[in-house]
Hints:
By secondary structure, this protein is of the alpha+beta class.
Amino acid sequence: MRFTKMHGIGNDYVYVDCFDEEVADPPATALAVSDRHFGIGSDGLILVMPSDVADVRMRMFNADGSEAEMCGNGVRCVAKYAFDHGRTRNNPLTVETGAGIKTIELTLGAGGKVARAAVDMGRPVLAPERIPVVWSAEQAVEIPLDADGQELRATCVSMGNPHAVIYVDAVQEVALERLGPVLENHPAFPQRVNVHVVQVHHAGEVTLRTWERGSGITLACGTGASAVCVAGVLTGRTQRAILAHLPGGDLTLEWRDDDHVVMTGPAVEVFTGQWPAEN
């Protein structure tokens, strides 16, 4: 199986071009290739596939083999792969995902290859039953959660997958390796949840760290940064356009007046290879 290793600000996946390749068991393959000691090393596996309704289709599997609906950093890399490798020459191009069709505008760099991409992430889902989160009000804004021996306040948003945003004074002081799995599997979240701790610098700038559902601590999460943009407006902490600092790099986000969130950031191809390695 030929593969391409790519990342969006450190959120790295193994990409397989299913125009040419076939992955018989994606969950098992995701588990194998994601292992950072005995595999290729990644946050998961992403398949780039033909689509009947968009330029390409994306399926993504977390490092634990579970399938997820969408990945903001991953979809930028899918767009880069599809354009740079000639699967489409459209710009903007469209990607079919488990969270709907995403439109992506490409910025080309050296050699006419994609350097950055702006993704229309669509409208945030705020109704608790659709996120889903167990909560009775119209929106799940700063709901109380008991976790790891403390009471936290979480604002919940779906960007095609569920997110819990928690504001803190200093993100680096949060024991995310302990708090993350407790919240991911909290009974308030029937489909588990992605967890983000956020420090606000001012109304236009934040720093965040992420525990991703099924993958653990990651360097970046695009859908999560989009959810943070929305949560900041809902809680009155930030404006509709922000710069987000993540461990792997920066993203710019805007919750536009048409209710769509646009996320902009880089996409990088690291290397290609063969799995399993040829003898």
